[in-house]
Amino acid sequence: MAVEVLLPKIGLTMQEGTIDEWLVPVGAAVAEGDALLRLATDKVDVDVEAEAGGLFHPVVPAGVTVPTGALIGWLLAEGEQPPGPAGTPMPAGSGAGASLPALDDTDAGAAPAVPCANGTAGRLLSSPNARRVATATDVELTAVRGTGPGGRIVSEDVEEFLEALPGDLGTPVPPGGTSSSPLVRKLAKERGIDLSEVNGTGPGGRIRRSDLDALTPALPHRDAATPHRGAAPRPGDVLPLTGMRGTIARRMHASLQEMAQLTHGYEVRMDAVVSLRDRLKEEWADSDLPVPSINDFLLKAAALALREHPLLNATVREDGIHLLDGVHLGFAVAVPGGLMVPVIEDAVQLPLPEMARRSRGLAQAARDGRISPAQLEGATFTVTSLGGYGVDFFTPVINPGNVAILGVGRLRDGVEWEDDRPLRTRVLTLSLTFDHRAVDGAPAAEYLRTVGDLLRRPLRLLV
């Protein structure tokens, strides 16, 4: 009996997803739990597994965006045909299916029939990513050995083929005759890496792609909208409002359209936090406790202050302003192509060391593309910092569903006067944007004052 393959709903807010790549060819036998497709959502990219076994028959091509619950393929028994006209997408039993483009074998991961490398005629199986890499690097796929299911060529096969080539891709060998493949030289040029300064780990000191990847984390920080890999945006490029970028555009526009947003600025003394943090570095040097960052102190202070000012931990619905029970703290993390907001659940209950451990783990998972949709859901309040970029004050935009967001500026020198004597201090500016429909100016200012009081006496934040 034919089994429907439906686009899964990953996370509470997901409404659609893009089939980035089918991971198995048409007609391949798959077992329950096998990776079936690579799905791109507005928050993360994930591999989707088959929920049953059978012979795979997709009904939409790679690259198509479809709503959650839409029919995207069938798992068939031997000799069984997909229900409905061949190649025509059928609505799922729930009626969630949409009118989608017809599919041919080329879109599903198989290139047109070509003479194969062994001289026989056949159908060359290759993934869309492999074909994109091959096109960008002028590689003839018939010369590449596939290592995927059934000999399917995947992008890694093309990259390995390129690394083995002695030829040129238009990127000259660096001075001194450093040995590297055309692909490595191309990637080095895109990433701004001087190959003459790279120590190769391959035979004879040959520079491999892994040598470049090892250097990437040490490169200067790039703007959030600049990918860590591939060419940076240049004048004349057109960046599509799709995926994460499109979601950010829609949500931020809706936020400003639907709320009455106002921002308060508030300067806070951080001398006590800086002093305490320096002390913790020494006292915890031989322990497994993570030393909290300045942002960790701010996250804990923001959470504790919400307990005293519940109007800021709320959401506006048609029937009124709902004050929320738990404090689930979102914090913005810059990633290639935009930003993500991981969520620290029940933040008030966490000791500061655990807050630091969770914030670091979630931030790294977001940057590495390993974060799950569940870890991006449910924020009741958000903190975002641009202090690392040298920004003192800015106007953050509220995450839809919340009524406020706290912006954090850079830690800088300030001056206070004791009688007639100037005193050097350490200060930063907080920027609280709030929805005036739910919160008035005075309660918002009181919240900022509470955050400032907690930071002036930070020992209370440790527990």
Gross morphology is globular
Radius of gyration: 27 Å
Which whole number gives the mean pLDDT?
80
Helix content estimate:
10-25%
What fold name stands as the CATH topology of the largest domain? Chloramphenicol Acetyltransferase
Tally of individual domains: 3
**Which structural class best describes the helix and strand composition?**
alpha+beta
In CATH terms, the superfamily of the largest domain is Chloramphenicol acetyltransferase-like domain
Strand content: 15-25%
What is the strand tally?
A: 21
Q: What CATH architecture of the largest domain would you give?
A: 2-Layer Sandwich
Query: H/E order of the elements?
Result: EEEEEEEEEEHHHHHEHHEEEEEEHEEEEH
Task: Sum this structure up briefly.
This protein has helices spanning 128-137, 155-164, 182-191, 209-215, 243-258, 271-283, 294-308, 352-368, 441-456; strands spanning 3-6, 16-22, 29-30, 35-40, 45-49, 54-58, 65-67, 71-76, 110-115, 121-125, 261-269, 314-317, 320-323, 329-331, 333-335, 338-340, 343-344, 381-385, 404-408, 412-418, 421-435. The protein is an alpha+beta fold and 463 residues long. The strands form six sheets. Strands 11, 14, 17, 18, 19, 20 and 21 form a seven-stranded mixed sheet that branches. A four-stranded antiparallel sheet has the order 1-8-6-3, with no helix packed on it.
